[in-house]
Amino acid sequence: MRIPMFIAALFLATGLSAESFEELKGMAAGRESVVLPQGTVIEGVIVSDYRSHNMETPVQVSFKEVDPGLNFRTAYLQSLDGKSGLRIQFNSVYDNRFPRFCKVKMDLGGAVLTRETDPERYTVSNLVGAFVSVVEQNVKLSPKVRHIADLTDADLYTLVTLADVEFMSKEGSYTNVHEKKVARTYINSFKTHNDGPIDGSGLVLKDNQGDDIFMPVNTRCTWRRNGDRVPQGVGSVDGILVHTVLRRYGDIGRYAIRPASSGDIRIPMEASSSYETIAEWNWDRNYDVALNFERQGLKEWIFGEVCAPDRVLPDVGQGYLSTTAGAMMRLDNEWNSRCVHDGNDAGAGAREWSVLRLESDTKDWYIFDGERIAGSQAVLVETSTKGFEGKGLSFEFTFAAGNCSAGLSWGFPGEWQVAYSVDGRNYIPVSKTFLLRPLWYGAANIKELGGVREMCYDAAPGSIECRVALPAFLLDKDRVYFRIYPSSDKLTVLPENPEDDINSGTMQNGFSHQFVLRLGKVSVKSLKN
Questions:
Q1: Degrees (nearest 5) of the Cα angle 284, 285, 287?
Q2: Whether the bond into 498 is cis, omega within 30 of 0
Q3: Which helix (H) or strand (E) holds 267?
Q4: What H or E segment, with its residue span, contains residue 72?
């Protein structure tokens, strides 16, 4: 009998057997979990790779330790016709030793089938390898090619080929993280300790239909940072379609794609794009270490000096970037590995002078009417789309908060939104919410909070990638405006328990705290016809 005592509280299916994936899934109809009866057998193809470090998000077991065991206990089983998939969680890493693309027969009697919703997906757990037999090796699968918009819940836990995709940010590696906060491997051998509190990273892929999806890559993958930039062209990515949570990145969407290795990323290195750049502020290319202002002109960076609020001119195209919050401005380090593996930045992964640092007070980002929040100040981006045609517009940016110190990692707006306008007065908000995360920080005694605060599970290893797809009527306009602004009264805190939600504070009139917003590359692009 394989059923442990904790299963006793679950529903037990009796008198049923499964000859197809849909019949199996039907056993959990109306229930969350069910113990499968003896004689339940299913056949399918293993589409995961048990050797890969990128099959599942590792478990954060403490503020300074990640357990990769779940990754190696997880496999994905696809139906023979490719239409349905299951996540398989073996009892131990030694049970999961079945080669990729082998056909297997699984005896699921006594295993637990769990149904989750929104999106609908199914996991089989309490399974040992002895109840799985290999029927055939090297099964040839017909590619299941999808554009991002065509993905459905039925594709979850199956092998999918995403067509006509490219990276939103083509700087850096597959994991733009600060290497001091991830597990030690040969690519960050400069580390003097082995703890790796950062579990994974995520980059945004976008396709030629105007849609996007996150591609999570766990930080224990040795191929994640191999000395080359991410591929610069347009191509395809093979991977397991999953629904996953990366707390440090906020909501990464209904679906995400997990490649097993860099070989699954079949995007050419040669530069090409389905998008045309209209305007771009890109401090990764700021080799003269200067900001080009509208009124102050070209201001070279001087240590310790900040610039008065002004409108920043773009590196590509024409337009302005500013804040209505009156934030002071200067260049600062981008605490991630956008320099991949080349030269003096290969160690910590801090790209120098490559973000716009905006210094202000939290209260300067809110407008109050008495005790009621009446609105928000914003980062304001303005450009012209005159002469540009296409199927739509893409507004893209990266951001983070703080300064790698606990003192500046709380007390700022946690939820942000984007709105657009063609007249600079009437703005249409986009429903998507972006969570602003503080950069990683060391433990510190914060007097205002009454004690020591360890790094919370929501601290980010680098800048968060954000994108909104906008309608084509914004093209060929004399002026288009974008606002990035706090969308709620949620404020970040540094919880005593690092597991607790960082966005549990509330903004109130009179609250004051220093706030550093770090703004990375900002782009306005047209989607070509």
A1: 115
A2: no
A3: none
A4: helix 69-73
Tell me the Cα Rg of the chain.
24
Rounded to 5°, angle at Cα 325 from 321 and 331? 50
pLDDT of residue 273: 98
SS3 197: coil
CB 378 within 8 A of CB 483: yes
- DSSP H/E element including 506: strand 505-506
Q: Tell me the C-alpha distance between 381 and 402, whole Å.
A: 22
- pTM exceeding 0.85: yes
* E strand segments, 96-232: 103-107, 112-116, 121-127, 132-136, 145-146, 159-167, 200-207, 212-218
Question: How much of the chain is in helix, strand and coil states, percent to nearest 5?
Answer: 10, 40, 50
Tell me, what amino acid is at 387? G
Pairing of strands 33-35, 11-12: parallel
Distance (Å, rounded) from C-alpha 57 to C-alpha 181?
16
Integer Cα distance of 252 and 437 in angstroms? 13
Q: Which residue has the tokens 């399918």?
A: 44
Nearest CA to 159 out of 231, 77, 218 is that of 77
Helix (H, G, I), strand (E, B) or coil at 359: strand
Q: What angle do CA 423, 418, 490 make, to 5 degrees?
A: 130
| Residue whose structure tokens are 């290999």 | 134
127 vs 4: CA distance, rounded Å: 11
Return the pLDDT at 2.
47
Secondary structure (3-state) at 336: coil
CA distance 281 to 302: 20
Helix (H/G/I), strand (E/B), else coil: 406? helix
How far apart (Å, rounded) are the C-alpha atoms in residues 348 and 339?
A: 10
CB 7 within 8 A of CB 126: yes
> Which 3 state secondary structure label does DSSP give 263?
helix
pLDDT along the chain (529 residues), means of 10: 40 51 92 93 97 94 88 96 96 97 96 97 97 96 94 98 97 84 71 71 96 95 84 98 93 96 97 98 74 89 84 96 96 69 48 84 97 97 98 97 94 98 97 95 90 93 94 98 98 95 96 96 97
Give the pLDDT confidence score for residue 99 in this predicted structure.
Answer: 96
Cα distances (angstroms) measured from residue 99 to each of 67, 95, 102, 134:
23, 12, 6, 9
Residue 235 and residue 267 in contact, taking contact as beta carbons nearer than 8 Å: yes
Which is nearest to 524 in space by CA: 474, 486, 452? Answer: 474
Say if CB 95 and CB 125 are below 8 A apart: no
How many C-beta neighbours within 10 Å does residue 360 have?
20
Reading the block at residue 50, the tokens are 């048990």
Q: Say if residues 442 and 402 touch (Cβ distance below 8 Å).
A: no
Distance CA(492)–CA(410), nearest Å, equals: 5
